[in-house]
Amino acid sequence: MGGTDREGFRVATAGGRADALHVGVVLPVHNEEHHLPDALRCLDRAIGQVTDDGIDCRLAVVLDDCSDASSEIVDHWLDHRTGPAPVDVVRICSKNVGVARRTGCAALLDRWPSAPVDAIWLATTDADSEVPGDWLTAQLRARAEGAHIWVGRVQVRSWSDRLEGTADEWQRRYAREPVPVHGANFGVDAAMYLDAGGFDGLATGEDRDLLDRVLGRGAVARTDGTVRVITSGRRQARAPRGFAHALSGIEDTLPVAAAAS
Q1: Which backbone phi and psi does 250 adopt, to 5 degrees?
Q2: Which of 47, 84, 221, 230 could form a disulfide with 130 if both were Cys (CB 3.0 to 4.6 A apart)?
Q3: Rounded CA gap, 136 and 48, in Å?
Q4: Strands 87-92 and 221-231, how do they pair?
Q5: Are the C-beta atoms of 90 and 28 separated by less than 8 Å?
Q6: Bridge partners for 151 per DSSP
Q7: How far apart are CA 217 and CA 230, in angstroms?
Q8: Distances from the Cα of 119 to the Cα of 71, 143, 151, angstroms
Q9: Which residues, in sequence order, are CB contacts of 100 under 8 Å at separation 6+?
Q10: Residues 6 or more apart from 132 whose CB is under 8 A from it?
Q11: What CA–CA distance (Å, rounded) separates 99 from 62?
């Protein structure tokens, strides 16, 4: 199934699966009123690039126990959008990103009950994030080359809420990290997703957990350092021990943080 690339993953090679005729995108939302409009706008742009190529695409927006204006923002967006793909809005009350991603994937798969699962690709991002225009086309290109799972990197939108030096230290550590995994920039073949049992109901780390289980089943993975999702550098975390927590941990190691304490 391929050799080994420099990051420890087998290089994807042509796989002989069915063409990816269906692409499902999952967007979990928990109190994201400030970032959600940009997230939706960017998703419409990325989805448009694959629907222009004749691929059937759907978006599942999973509103998870939102107490801010997120639900109203989604309703307004649906009323006024001229977007390229149907949207399913699912409401849950779990406050759990693993459950939200799992729920969104299930809702999308239910929409294609007759399609072969190896003809479906599932992608996920986050509601505080902005995907680039080629986000889905890059994933499908990797899939066409044999990949069962695709993981990309992120970049932080603004460091204004963080201490001086946080950005440089994060960049230094991030550059050394061989395989960073972000649910904000993640895609997986539906057949392999189901074989691995899907996203688990984890409050954090659900993305790496799924990656590990998929790799354990012999999946070919592709890492992509060029297609980066822009995400928030905020302090108030939505997932415990998630990205915001990691940035705060870096701040705690800075000399300026020690001097201020």
Answers
A1: -65, -45
A2: 230
A3: 10
A4: unpaired
A5: no
A6: 186, 223
A7: 31
A8: 31, 10, 19
A9: 26, 28, 29, 30, 62, 64, 92, 94
A10: 42, 46, 227, 228, 229
A11: 10
The reported pTM is 0.84
* Tens-place pLDDT, residues 69-111: 999 999 999 999 988 899 999 999 999 999 999 999 999 999 9
What are the structural domains of the chain? 22-164+178-233 (3.90.550.10)
Give 119's DSSP letter: G
Model pLDDT, residue 10: 40
Contacts of 34 (CB under 8 A, 6+ apart): 128
More confident residue, 249 or 124: 124
What string of DSSP letters covers 15-66?
--PPP--EEEEEEEESS-TTTHHHHHHHHHHHHHHHHTTT-EEEEEEEEES-
In which band, very low, low, confident or very high, does the pLDDT at 245 lie, cut at 50, 70 and 90?
Answer: low
Whole-number pLDDT of residue 191: 96
